[in-house]
């Protein structure tokens, strides 16, 4: 299922990102350029700074030093809703959905920023607001829910759904924003093997059919090596490797970070 054909122009550029909380350094001079049209996986041991890096990209965290550019524009001073409007969307490691609402209503929230209406029109439900709302609802039902295999669940409350379906709802809500860049934070965490296979297919479909660039944090290294164009490896907030899945898989620093110095030395001795 290996992917191919990533583009080469830069969509996202992170330069010398430093992030600390109190005296704890979380990111230490991380630089990374994402190419438009690629799937880039970000891996590393627990506590490596992976989620913190995504949080900097969508300005949930603001680094003390460094520059983040999206399509050549410095986005460091923007607010989260401005980031979404530019075309950056994300899912979360812990599914952040409204569990008492239906699948359709959760996904509709992702389209809210794209709707054109006045506050008065929304409050009074004036005809132009109702037409706009119905148009976006139709697009979501036909394009997003169908695409993510969620049509049969549209009127189900999220709380009643299994984890694999809820992860797809989270991904559908992000897609409803019409993103250019999709940030996925351990979307396979907690899934059974069959669910992982399903979500892997959806990741490939989003990349291939919708043309969305994807930055993906994941602990399932087999899936990472199978789906990614490139892999970036963090360890204790520092980037220790970046390259093709094959190159990263055989990098001594990566092996040491995951398996320890003793394993690296043993493997070298065995030739």
Features:
alpha/beta, 10 strands, disordered C terminus, 271 residues, 23% strand, globular, 11 helices, 4-stranded antiparallel β-sheet, Rossmann fold
What does this protein look like?
This protein has 271 residues and is an alpha/beta fold. It has a domain at 10-100 and 174-270: 3-Layer(aba) Sandwich (Rossmann fold), CATH 3.40.50.300. It is 41% helix and 23% strand. The protein has eleven helices and ten strands. It has helices at 50-57, 80-86, 103-109, 119-124, 127-147, 163-175, 193-210, 221-227, 245-249, 252-259, 261-270; strands at residues 10-21, 24-35, 39-43, 65-70, 73-74, 88-90, 181-185, 213-217, 230-235, 238-243. The strands form two sheets. The chain has a six-stranded mixed beta sheet with strand order 6-7-8-3-9-10, with helices on both faces. It has a four-stranded antiparallel beta sheet with strand order 2-1-4-5, covered by helices on one side. Helix 3 (103-109) runs parallel beside helix 6 (163-175) and helix 10 (252-259) packs across helix 11. The longest helix has 21 residues, at 127-147. The chain is globular. The two termini are 30 Å apart. 35% of the residues are buried.
Strand percent estimate: 15-25%
What is the first-to-last residue Cα distance? Answer: 30 Å
Helix percentage: 40-55%
CATH topology of the domain at 10-100 and 174-270: Rossmann fold
Q: In one word, what is the shape?
A: globular
What class do helices, strands and sheet pairing give?
Answer: alpha/beta
CATH superfamily of the domain at 10-100 and 174-270: P-loop containing nucleotide triphosphate hydrolases
Could you name the CATH class of the domain at 10-100 and 174-270? Alpha Beta
- Number of helical segments with 4 or more residues: 11
Number of strands: 10
Mean pLDDT: 85
- Lateral strand order in the biggest sheet: 6-7-8-3-9-10
List the helices and strands in order. EEEHEEHEHHHHEHEHEEHHH
């Amino acid at each position: 299922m290996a992917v191919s054909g990533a583009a080469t122009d830069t969509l996202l550029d992170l330069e010398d990102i430093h992030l600390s909380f109190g005296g704890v350094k979380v990111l230490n001079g991380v630089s990374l350029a994402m190419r438009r049209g690629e799937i880039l996986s970000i891996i590393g041991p627990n506590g490596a700074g992976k989620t913190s890096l995504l949080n900097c990209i969508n300005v949930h965290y603001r680094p003390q030093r460094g520059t983040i550019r999206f399509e050549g524009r410095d986005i460091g001073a923007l607010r989260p809703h401005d980031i979404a409007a530019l075309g950056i969307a994300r899912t979360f490691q812990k599914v952040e959905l409204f569990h008492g609402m239906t699948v359709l209503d959760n996904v509709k929230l992702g389209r809210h920023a794209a709707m054109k209406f006045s506050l008065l029109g929304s409050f009074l439900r004036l005809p132009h607001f109702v037409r706009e709302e119905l148009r976006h609802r139709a697009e979501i039902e036909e394009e997003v829910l169908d695409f993510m295999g969620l049509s049969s669940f549209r009127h189900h409350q999220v709380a009643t759904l299994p984890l694999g379906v809820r992860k797809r709802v989270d991904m559908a809500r992000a897609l409803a924003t019409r993103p250019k860049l999709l940030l996925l934070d351990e979307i396979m965490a907690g899934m059974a093997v069959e669910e992982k296979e399903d979500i892997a297919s959806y990741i490939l479909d989003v990349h291939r059919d919708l043309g969305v660039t994807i930055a993906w944090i994941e602990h399932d290294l087999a899936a990472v090596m199978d789906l990614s164009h490139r892999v970036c490896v963090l360890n204790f907030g520092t980037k220790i490797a970046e390259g093709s899945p094959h190159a990263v898989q055989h990098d001594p620093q990566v092996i040491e970070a995951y398996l320890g110095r003793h394993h690296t030395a043993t493997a070298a001795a065995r030739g």
